[in-house]
Design goal:
Pfam family, one: PAE
Largest sheet: 10 strands, mixed
Keywords: Cell wall, Cell wall biogenesis/degradation, Hydrolase, Secreted, Signal
Distance between the termini: 29 Å
Protein name: Pectin acetylesterase
Family: Belongs to the pectinacetylesterase family.
EC number: 3.1.1.-
Mean pLDDT: 94
Length: 396
């Protein structure tokens, strides 16, 4: 028995070592940069600490090209939920790791990231809780919380402009999850910061959050976003083309905010986005008996009726995408995977077994679209037809 246990442990150690070798080959670590000058401008994280980012400099032909990628991490919608973030990396730069692994769209290796490997690649840390839209002048004396995300975004961009982005020939604003929403909401304002001759486009990865009912038929996400916008004072920093037409909190939804974006935008999203299934379609508040627990953890554990409900969510998602209208300059890669954020991880960005649509990986589709080699607007067939998916499985 002991030999069997030791043999099993040895096998797992071998697997772990192999995984670490692969991870090391596919990623590298980049030091953190704190924007200390932002503090005097009031451009600070929830706890008042300075904003931060990680920058890996470009080289060769990419030395004047810039890819600014925004970290994700959800939102906080009131003093209680924002206080919960104050003492972790999503609310304080004091709690952020000093080095961060870069891979996928941030990789510096041509075989892993052929179109952007030699660009200046930046990962902006997320510590404001409202996709960089908030700006409340007063600091609550009880909580000592700062709602200053819009100032943080501008302060970081000004720091990058001073470090050479003002000479950018090509520039991209991208992001994952709440960062993907940031890349949509700030797309035109990012372009406005750069020289007129700069080629600017935006990428949103898993940032197309839709306004739909949950399994209890409540508008849970709409009420939540309303609280986010109210708490952070976001209204004045949302696209004015939207807020002039409807309630500001509805402009936190891409289906409303992105209609009038002038800068070319590429949307990468799973039609069965695992975060949206877990938090918009079947949040805990709408599933008090936990009937969706196993399904949300692993899509292969969903019942026939749950899958039918998820197919309905996919249709809602596609309808929300259609609300943007037709645009030749827009691109999208909508696969039928149970996933969330597919550009930051090498396995889903560009590898021999990566997800594909029309025989193109996400990296190839986005690269061809950005460089005007070919347009890309593809929507996958319904689950479970796509055998290239890397479907998420959540433990516990």
């Amino acid at each position: 028995m002991d030999r069997i246990m030791i043999g099993g442990l040895h096998k797992w150690l071998q697997i772990l070592v192999c995984m670490l070798i692969v991870l090391r080959a596919e990623s590298f670590f980049v030091d953190i940069t704190y924007v200390q000058s932002a503090v005097a401008k009031g451009a600070v994280c929830l706890d008042g600490s300075p904003p931060a980012y990680h920058l890996n400099r470009g080289s060769g032909a990419g030395i004047n090209n810039w890819l600014v990628h925004i970290e994700g991490g959800g939102w906080c919608n009131n003093a209680t939920t924002c206080l919960a973030r104050r003492n972790n990396r999503l609310g304080s730069s004091k709690q952020m790791v000093k080095q961060l692994a870069f891979s996928g769209i941030l990789s510096n290796k041509p075989q892993f990231n052929p179109d952007f490997y030699n660009w200046n690649r930046i990962k902006v840390r997320y510590c404001d809780g409202a996709s960089f839209t908030g700006d409340v002048e007063e600091v609550d004396p009880a909580t000592k919380l700062y709602y200053r995300g819009a100032r943080v975004f501008l302060a970081i961009m000004e720091d990058l402009l001073a470090k050479g982005m003002k000479n950018a020939e090509n520039a991209v604003l991208s992001g994952c999850s709440a960062g993907g929403l940031t890349s949509i909401l700030h797309c035109d304002s990012f372009k406005a910061l750069l020289p007129i001759g700069t080629k600017v486009k935006c990428f949103s990865d898993a940032g197309y959050f839709i306004n739909t009912k949950d399994v209890s038929q409540a508008q849970h996400i709409e009420a939540f976003y309303n609280d986010v916008v109210t708490t952070h004072g976001s209204a004045k920093n949302l696209p004015q083309s939207c807020t002039l037409k409807m309630k500001p909190s509805l402009c936190f939804f891409p289906q409303n905010a992105a209609r009038d974006i002038r800068t070319p935008l590429f949307i990468t999203n799973a039609a069965y986005d695992s975060w949206q299934i877990k938090n918009i379609l079947a949040p805990g508040v709408a599933d008090p008996h936990g009937l969706w627990h196993n399904c949300k953890a692993d899509i292969t554990k969903c019942s026939a009726s749950q899958l039918e409900t998820m197919q309905g969510f996919r249709l809602d998602f596609l309808n929300a995408l259609n609300e943007l209208g037709v645009s030749r300059s827009r691109g999208y890669f909508i696969n039928s995977c149970y996933a969330h954020c597919q550009t930051e991880m090498q396995e889903t960005w560009l590898r021999s077994d990566s997800p594909m649509l029309s025989n193109k990986t996400i990296a190839k589709a986005i690269g061809d679209w950005y460089h005007d080699r070919s347009p890309f607007q593809k929507i996958d067939c319904p689950y479970p037809c796509d055998k290239t998916c890397h479907n998420r499985i959540f433990e516990g």
